[in-house]
């Protein structure tokens, strides 16, 4: 039973403590909670000194367990506690104290002796010592539905507790003082769990008290009105007793109000003002969220600048979670227009910050900032300047859809909410329109044009789709605006506006028909709900019924404008084509086909012709009944075009060099149309390949074919070949069919190869791309998937063709920008980007041939050597090619890398002669490229062991390949290459460094090892790079029989090195593979000639070599047998040592751990500038508020001295001091 239902606890006299007289009317000054928390407990505890609920069996016995499980109604739980409080205040409060302690995750329990004899600080210190620090989790942060429900129950318990106690118990100067004092102490704890839980409890307690204060204020107002009404009565009717009762009630309410205000002041000054800037973002977020609730709930008391400033300051918080709470709290305030006058000063001070937060790096924060700006706009249009609005306008083009949709809502409120409906309807009637949205659509078009982002019409439509969907679906009004004729005295759309409106209209049609955002917005197509699916079907039917009739008229009006026609011809792909037959609208279909044919006859622009071709393809779908009608019209059109094309070709070939411009135009126009149609339609029965092939052969033989005709003929022939391949793969081809297609492909490849030497760059580029595509299509992959019958169609490029393709790439891709700009000084940035895009496509096409083993991998050496020089333009393509080729063949890829470096070195020798300046930028460039190549081998040296060893062998052979003609006392010509090769030494495992060094010494004479002149420095540095760790390796070999303890001791003194643990037979096989590879090498091998894949021998026989054949490690290496035996010894030593290596590594890592305290995060700064365009906002804000909006609350008398967690970050002096300290620390 609650105290509300107990008449004995309603009176004022129950406010005193038990055993003492009721307070008189002359109240003594109220003690602070901290003063009264010491020595106020007088009740009796149970034998064990722990307050408990009675429970049977597994029933929860503590208040914490009851609230956590949430099985009982919260009001009944609170009523039981109130009943126990009436019986024994101390035990009930002890239960409540333990509730807060246990909610913090503390395993300790406050006993009755502690409660009676210890101060709060001592109790909290004792609980801190018993806190479980092994885990950082506590109930408020634990995952799972149980703990999520616990948080809700925890907050509800506090709210219900105050609600049920609001008429008496909270005024007894005992319960609330004890609770507030405890929560104040816990909120100042260094333990995050205590601080977090107590802050949440205190803020919810404050919210409940605010609600009580609001009710008291309402009762006071009602009592005052009753008193005034009674007093204003005439003397005869006035009831003096009632007046006295009303006066007594008003006085009592005022006293209660004063006590509630004291409690709220204690919580606000003792907890909020310190925790709203806590180091933990969750705690700061709790404070800001609750102060927003107070301001909305009791605006008369809290909605003023003294409280609003805390929200305004925290808008600069470094954590998006806290900024988000600020914005949502403000949204709740700005939603109520009656509160706008009280928010005027805050709006003026923090408007710029709020507008800048629309660009927040956290998208959720940016969305809420835009919504808040929209609410400000709704409340007062004068509050935002034009510049503020423009900052939000451009966000409708954001790639993040929620941001764009929020900006679309703002745009809708700003532009489309101020029109006069009556005036719009009158104008519509006068112009004969069926829709009054004409002016709104004009405004949308003007906004789109002024934004100067014409290619983003789809984004604009998607942004406005949720807020302005009715307007965007008003296709009747859009069509009327486009079709209406000019009327004297009224302005019609300009040509630019018409183009923009058509583009927007097509985007709205696409959005309605597809019901998903455009490409680049969203993560993909989501599953539509039943309601969304129904809306999509209705919209598709609506747009189909309208544009079936309107589209032919629009095409008729704009058929001469290629841009408008290309956009309009996209509309049929969104039709529900069944409407043609179901609605008996075949005449409109005929009208559409007629207009498309007229468009084809009038235009030769490829985008228009491709749109016409695609429309025919859609209308010819076999699933629709209109297919036959459209197919007839299409066949007639193609028949006519092919006849005209054949006739034009004959005339052009007959006249040859005497052909005039009309003959060339006739051939080119027909060829463009047929090429566009051949892309989407199978035109093989018209045999276009023959005519195109004749044109190409004639151009090659005569050398005078116009480049546009050659380009289009190549493309049309390519489509013809692909359609023939499609027919063969879909059916059961005969041998004759395969032979015929092979003959066609072979002849076309020959023509393309000849076109690579054409004088016209567009022709060469087209031929190159088609060659790459065809070689990819007709490669060995053609017969995969059970298509072995297509083997006759497989083409492998010979070395001549491969060289021509490679030379084309070198000549047309790896060119300097300066060389290109010299061709046209007026070339703008857009054209340069387009040219770079084209070159990237050329390079990618050739690299695909390398990746798929169509072109030999060594050809990639000429590509790899440009990796550094053209890194910005092609670095990603070259890097991906390198990665894919390594997956195909690690060894051959490594040989290709070293070959690319050798080519660069040879080029440098040709330029500078044998006496290289090793400090020059050219040599440094080669070394840097080698370093980059070395990084691509990754960290797993076991996987790349064989490849890296091969690379070093080829590099050594290249360095000593040519002797110096001046005599043996001079270094070999290529010796400087060893300096480049040393960049790869770090990728050798330690035992292979010894092996490579032995191989190096085979090429060295005795005199070489003794030379120390500068010209011999590359050899010296390379030897040193191989000997790094060599002594350690030698020591590890000789000490292989020593004890494990001795081995560990010998390794402690040296710095940690990277170790690799071998895994069973895989490691042995890999060792043997490298061993076999090196055994096959002899002095007669030559590099860098033809890079052949090394022949691997079986590893089975070598794995069982007898150990007695291993040579002494101290013996002079040099022979292949010694080298092979040494490798075997290293292999066995590595296997025996793997366990020790792993243990040493773990031990070394374990010594680096540093224990982190619970409050380590408190050392982090709280605020930082997180905006893209708000540098210096925090400093300006502090200067602004240094002398304004000072909080006007009575000083707290129960705040004990304590060590602050953080300095006051809103105090300018503290900030300056903090900055000086940070600068000193950096120095």
How would a crystallographer describe the biggest sheet?
Answer: none
Arithmetic mean pLDDT: 78
Which shape, going by the Cα principal axes? flat
| Low-confidence spans | 1-58, 820-824, 1030-1127, 1130-1227
Helical content band? 55-70%
Report the β-strand fraction as a percent range: under 5%
Count of separate DSSP helical elements: 52
From the N-terminal CA to the C-terminal CA, the straight-line distance is: 67 Å
> What is the CA-based Rg, rounded?
43 Å
DSSP strand tally: 0
Structural class: mainly alpha
Describe this structure in words.
Helix 25 crosses helix 28, helix 30 runs antiparallel to helix 31 and helix 30 runs parallel beside helix 32. Helices cover 62% and strands 0% of the residues. It is flat. By secondary structure, it is mostly helical. The chain has 52 helices and no strands.
Blueprint (SSEs and pairs):
Elements: H1 33-36, H2 63-69, H3 74-87, H4 89-103, H5 112-117, H6 120-129, H7 145-165, H8 175-187, H9 192-231, H10 240-275, H11 281-297, H12 299-302, H13 305-314, H14 320-334, H15 344-356, H16 363-379, H17 386-393, H18 401-415, H19 421-431, H20 438-451, H21 457-464, H22 469-472, H23 475-483, H24 495-514, H25 530-558, H26 562-568, H27 578-582, H28 586-602, H29 606-619, H30 627-655, H31 661-680, H32 688-702, H33 707-730, H34 735-755, H35 761-777, H36 799-812, H37 817-821, H38 829-851, H39 861-864, H40 871-888, H41 890-912, H42 921-935, H43 945-959, H44 977-981, H45 990-1003, H46 1017-1027, H47 1030-1038, H48 1044-1052, H49 1064-1080, H50 1120-1150, H51 1177-1184, H52 1212-1226
Helix pairs in contact: 3-4, 3-7, 4-8, 7-9, 8-9, 8-10, 9-10, 9-11, 11-13, 11-14, 14-16, 15-16, 16-18, 18-21, 20-24, 21-24, 23-25, 24-25, 24-26, 25-26, 25-28, 26-29, 29-31, 30-31, 30-32, 31-33, 32-33, 32-34, 33-34, 33-35, 34-35, 35-38, 36-38, 38-40, 40-41, 41-42, 41-43, 43-45, 43-49, 45-50, ...
């Amino acid at each position: 039973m609650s105290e509300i239902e107990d008449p004995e606890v309603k009176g004022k006299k129950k406010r005193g403590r038990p055993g003492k007289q009721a307070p008189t009317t002359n109240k003594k000054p109220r003690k602070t909670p901290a003063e009264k928390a010491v020595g106020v407990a007088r009740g009796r505890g149970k034998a064990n000194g722990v307050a408990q609920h009675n429970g049977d069996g597994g029933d929860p016995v503590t208040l914490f367990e009851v609230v956590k499980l949430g099985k009982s109604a919260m009001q009944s739980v609170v009523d039981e506690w109130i009943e126990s409080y009436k019986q024994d205040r101390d035990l009930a409060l002890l239960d409540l104290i333990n509730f807060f302690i246990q909610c913090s995750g503390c395993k300790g329990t406050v006993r009755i002796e502690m409660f009676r004899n210890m101060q709060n600080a001592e109790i909290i210190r004792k609980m801190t010592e018993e806190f479980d620090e092994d885990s950082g989790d506590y109930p408020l942060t634990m995952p799972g539905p149980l703990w999520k429900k616990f948080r809700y129950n925890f907050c509800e318990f506090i709210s219900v507790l105050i609600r049920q106690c609001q008429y008496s118990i909270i005024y007894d100067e005992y319960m609330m003082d004890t609770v507030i004092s405890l929560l104040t102490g816990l909120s100042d704890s260094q333990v995050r769990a205590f601080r977090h839980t107590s802050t949440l409890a205190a803020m919810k307690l404050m919210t409940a008290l605010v609600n009580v204060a609001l009710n008291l204020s309402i009762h006071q107002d009602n009592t005052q009105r009753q008193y005034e009404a009674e007093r204003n009565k005439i003397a005869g009717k006035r009831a003096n007793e009632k007046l006295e009762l009303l006066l007594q009630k008003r006085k009592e309410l005022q006293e209660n109000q004063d006590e509630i205000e004291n409690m709220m002041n204690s919580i606000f000054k003792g907890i909020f003002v310190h925790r709203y800037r806590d180091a933990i973002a969750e705690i700061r977020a709790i404070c800001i969220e609750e102060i927003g609730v107070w301001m909305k709930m009791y605006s008369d008391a809290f909605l003023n600048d003294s409280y609003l400033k805390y929200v305004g300051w925290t808008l600069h918080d470094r954590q998006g979670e806290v900024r988000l709470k600020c914005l949502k709290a403000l949204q709740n305030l700005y939603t109520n227009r009656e509160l706008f006058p009280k928010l005027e000063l805050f709006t003026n001070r923090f408007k710029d910050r709020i507008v800048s937060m629309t660009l927040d790096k956290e998208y959720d924060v940016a969305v809420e900032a835009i919504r808040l700006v929209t609410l400000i706009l709704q409340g007062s249009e004068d509050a935002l300047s034009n510049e503020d609005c423009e900052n939000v306008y451009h966000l409708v083009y954001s790639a993040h859809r929620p941001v764009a949709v929020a900006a679309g809502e703002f745009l809708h409120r700003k532009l489309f909410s101020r029109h006069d409906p009556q005036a719009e309807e009158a104008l519509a009637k006068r112009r004969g329109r069926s829709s009054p949205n004409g002016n709104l659509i004009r405004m949308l078009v003007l906004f789109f044009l002024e934004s100067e982002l014409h290619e983003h019409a789809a984004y604009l439509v998607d942004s406005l789709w949720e807020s302005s969907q009715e307007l965007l679906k008003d296709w009747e009004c859009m069509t009327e605006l486009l079709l209406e004729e000019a009327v004297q005295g009224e302005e019609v759309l300009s040509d630019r506006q018409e183009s923009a409106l058509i583009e927007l209209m097509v985007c709205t049609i696409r959005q309605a028909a597809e019901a998903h955002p455009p490409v680049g917005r969203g993560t993909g197509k989501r599953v539509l709900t039943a309601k969304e699916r129904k809306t999509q079907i209705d919209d598709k039917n609506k747009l189909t019924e309208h544009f079936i009739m309107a589209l032919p008229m629009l095409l008729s009006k704009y058929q001469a404008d290629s841009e408008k026609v290309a956009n309009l011809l996209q509309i049929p792909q969104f039709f529900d084509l069944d409407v043609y037959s179901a609605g008996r609208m075949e005449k409109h279909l005929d009208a559409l086909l007629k207009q498309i044919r007229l468009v084809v006859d009038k235009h030769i622009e490829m985008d228009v012709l491709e749109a016409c071709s695609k429309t025919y393809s859609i209308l010819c779908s076999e699933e629709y009944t209109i297919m036959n009608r459209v197919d007839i019209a299409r066949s007639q059109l193609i028949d006519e075009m092919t006849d005209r094309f054949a006739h034009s070709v004959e005339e052009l070939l007959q006249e040859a060099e005497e052909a005039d411009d009309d003959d060339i135009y006739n051939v080119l126009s027909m060829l463009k149309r047929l090429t566009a149609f051949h892309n989407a339609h199978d035109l093989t029965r018209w045999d276009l390949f023959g005519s195109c092939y004749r044109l190409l052969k004639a151009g090659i033989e005569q050398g005078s074919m116009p480049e546009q005709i050659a380009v289009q003929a190549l493309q049309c022939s390519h489509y013809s070949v692909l359609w023939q391949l499609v027919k063969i793969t879909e059916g059961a081809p005969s041998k004759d069919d395969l032979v015929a297609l092979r003959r066609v492909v072979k002849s076309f490849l020959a023509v393309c190869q000849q076109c690579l030497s054409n004088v016209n760059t567009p022709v060469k580029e087209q031929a190159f791309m088609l060659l790459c595509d065809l070689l990819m299509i007709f490669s060995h992959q053609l017969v995969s998937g059970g298509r072995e019958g297509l083997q006759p169609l497989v083409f492998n490029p010979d070395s001549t063709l491969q060289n021509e393709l490679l030379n084309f790439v070198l000549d047309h891709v790896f060119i300097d920008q300066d060389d290109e700009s010299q061709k046209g000084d007026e070339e703008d940035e857009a054209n340069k980007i387009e040219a770079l895009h084209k070159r990237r496509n050329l390079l990618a096409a050739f690299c695909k041939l390398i990746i798929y083993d169509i072109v030999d991998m060594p050809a990639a050496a000429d590509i790899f050597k440009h990796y550094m020089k053209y890194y910005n333009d092609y670095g990603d393509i070259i890097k991906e090619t390198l990665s894919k080729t390594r997956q195909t063949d690690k060894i051959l890829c490594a040989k290709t890398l070293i070959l690319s470096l050798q080519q660069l070195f040879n080029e440098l020798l040709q330029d500078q002669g044998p006496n290289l300046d090793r400090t020059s930028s050219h040599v440094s460039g080669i070394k840097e490229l080698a370093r980059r190549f070395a990084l691509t081998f990754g960290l797993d040296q076991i996987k790349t062991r064989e490849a890296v060893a091969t690379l070093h062998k080829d590099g050594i052979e290249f360095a000593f390949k040519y002797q110096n003609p001046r005599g043996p006392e001079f270094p070999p010509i290529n010796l400087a290459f060893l300096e480049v090769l040393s960049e790869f030494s770090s990728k050798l495992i330690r035992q292979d460094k010894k092996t490579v060094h032995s191989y190096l010494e085979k090429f060295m004479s005795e005199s070489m090892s003794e030379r120390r002149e500068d010209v011999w420095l590359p050899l010296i540095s390379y030897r040193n790079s191989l000997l790094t760790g060599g002594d350690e390796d030698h020591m590890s070999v000789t000490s292989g029989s020593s004890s494990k303890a001795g081995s560990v001791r010998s390794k402690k003194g040296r710095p940690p090195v990277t170790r690799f643990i071998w895994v069973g037979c895989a490691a042995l096989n890999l060792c043997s593979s490298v061993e076999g590879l090196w055994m096959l090498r002899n002095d007669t091998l030559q590099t860098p000639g033809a890079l052949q894949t090394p022949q691997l021998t079986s590893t089975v026989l070598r794995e069982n070599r007898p150990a007695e054949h291993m040579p002494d490690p101290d013996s002079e290496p040099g022979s292949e047998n010694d080298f092979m035996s040494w490798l075997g010894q290293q292999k066995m030593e590595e296997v025996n040592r793997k366990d020790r290596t792993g243990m040493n590594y773990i031990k070394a890592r374990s010594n680096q751990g540093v224990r982190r305290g619970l409050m380590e995060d408190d050392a982090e700064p709280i605020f930082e500038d997180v905006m893209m365009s708000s540098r210096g906002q925090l400093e300006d804000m502090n200067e602004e508020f240094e002398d304004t909006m000072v909080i006007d609350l009575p000083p707290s008398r129960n705040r004990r001295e304590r060590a602050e967690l953080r300095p006051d970050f809103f105090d300018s002096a503290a900030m300056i001091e903090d900055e000086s300290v940070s600068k000193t620390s950096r120095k």
